[in-house]
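Need Lipoprotein's 3D structure for a figure. Predict it.
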Amino acid sequence: MAVLLALAGCTTTISGAAQPEPESPPSNLALVDPARTASVLTAVKTATEAVFSYDSTAVPAYEKAIADNLTPGARDELAKLFAEVRNSAEPIKLVTRVIVSAAVEQTSDKARVLTVLDQSSTRAGATSKGIASVLLATVREGDRWRIGKVEVNPAAPSPAAEKPGAGDRVIARVRDSAREGALRAAEALLNVDPADPEGTYARYESVSTGQLLTQFQQDKAARLNQIRSGSAKASMAPNPVAAVMEVVDDKASVLLHATSDVTDAAGQATKKYLPIVLRLQRLPEGWKAAGIEMVQALP
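Structure prediction for Lipoprotein:
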């Protein structure tokens, strides 16, 4: 995945007797060194596609992939996830491809990577497809990145925001501000209350800009009617996982996995899992959403 981080016009000003804080590396290196982050994502992509794919006619190859790409603890975890697949009485082939991924957090030897998977399963001549979001905790062992923990449909607090400072910490703070902007936008865009259509719509506009705002304004009457006539209330569950994919000048792209709690008119509750990419624009008042895209399965 190509990753570019460019900061235009980012400066720090110090006046009076205060001395600048000594430059030190940020605690979270995701996107601070774009080439290093891209390298981690590539390595994790290779490992992920290997261990989440399975061919019942080539079990030794699968077991080698597990040994090469997972820590011992993760092997037990994946064995539970794959128990039904591996115990199938019929030949089965599962092909997994990474659609998109981004680093939530990265150090020199650890990374947490939010990944959306495309999965195609063939059994008894029938093929089914689907997508899944996973949060992968990885560790570097020598020249290889191994997966140490797998969370499916994850929910987790965001990493702590980077402390003020100079150099790379300025870059990290811009990344973190984009992530927080995405979370604020998602909170507004994914909450729907049929009992308060005007308030629901107002929240849409409050976090939007550019083409997305124009679309909302052009379709305002239809959207209000849709909210008002809907019978289900939706709210974003706590701790959605967000990872900044790129920041270029005053624009950013953020990959986000959110769980939506949906309650229908009869009081029945269900969950919807939403992998989303938010396109953000930085304005004087902060980051706003210029576009929102649901992650789609690969062709």
